[in-house]
Design goal:
With 228 residues, the protein is of the alpha/beta class. It has helices at 11-23, 34-43, 60-69, 85-93, 106-121, 157-168, 176-184, 192-206; strands at 3-7, 27-31, 48-52, 75-80, 98-101, 131-134, 137-140, 145-148, 151-153, 173-175, 216-219, 223-226. Strands 2-1-3-4-5 form a five-stranded parallel β-sheet, sandwiched between helices.
């Protein structure tokens, strides 16, 4: 079952969202302040976070920034009563996937969520087979599974998409901006550090010696090359 964290200090709004997501089949976890929201996001695994910007204790911007700094690529939709363009820019630059201004309808919110999920989950490289192996790693894209030494490895949807794109461009040098634009869809607010953090995590899962990688090679000042 899909799981959503609702970080919203307005109890009436939080309850409405709780009911809406419950009806859509989500398991809902509420947080009424930023400190609680950040702790829950760090301790538990979520498919989605609905994140109000103006939270007590820790604001939504800081929560989003901290999660992305830690390499957490959960889908984040930010909520705010603000409507200035700069607020939207800040949220997206910090790594939010989308932004909804209050007041909004639940149908609008779900449409935004579905658009984000399509981008994250339906990333497609038609020249990549459903089954691919290299070294001691086996990937089953149809089952969304990665195994190393015959043991399943827990990977996120974004990490799986990174692997798929690397495989589709095997042997080629790929820039960080290209990875952002293609795998993340961030063509307006590039965050190249995001790519580096995900590569570090991915190497820890697929490389025999992550400090001396043999599959995902860094090309100094340019990007990466996949040799698997």
């Amino acid at each position: 079952m899909r799981k959503v964290l609702i970080a919203e200090d307005d109890r009436a709004m939080a309850m409405a969202l709780h009911d809406g997501f419950g009806f859509e089949g989500y398991t809902v976890v509420p947080a009424y302040d930023g400190e609680t929201a950040l702790r829950l996001a760090q301790e538990q695994s979520f498919d989605l976070i609905i994140l109000d910007i103006m939270l007590p204790k820790i604001c939504g911007y800081d929560i989003c920034k901290q999660l992305r700094t830690e390499g957490n690529d959960v889908a984040i939709i930010m909520l705010t009563a603000r409507s200035q363009e700069i607020d939207k820019v800040i949220g997206l630059k910090l790594g939010a996937d989308d932004y909804v201004t209050k007041p909004f309808s639940f149908l609008e919110l779900m449409a935004r969520i579905q658009a984000v999920q399509r981008r994250l989950c339906k990333f497609d490289c038609p020249n990549v087979a459903d089954f691919y192996s290299f070294g001691n790693v086996v990937i089953d894209f149809k089952k969304f599974q990665v195994s190393k030494d015959n043991r399943l490895v827990e990977v996120s949807g974004r990490e799986l998409n990174l692997l798929k794109y690397f495989i589709s461009r095997r042997g080629e040098v790929i820039t960080r901006d290209e990875l952002l634009n293609t795998v993340w869809g961030y063509d307006s607010f590039p965050l190249t550090r995001t790519v580096d953090m995900h590569i570090v995590k991915l190497r820890q899962k697929i490389e025999t010696d992550p400090s001396n990688p043999t599959f995902i090679i860094t090309i100094h000042r340019v990007g990466y090359k996949f040799t698997g």
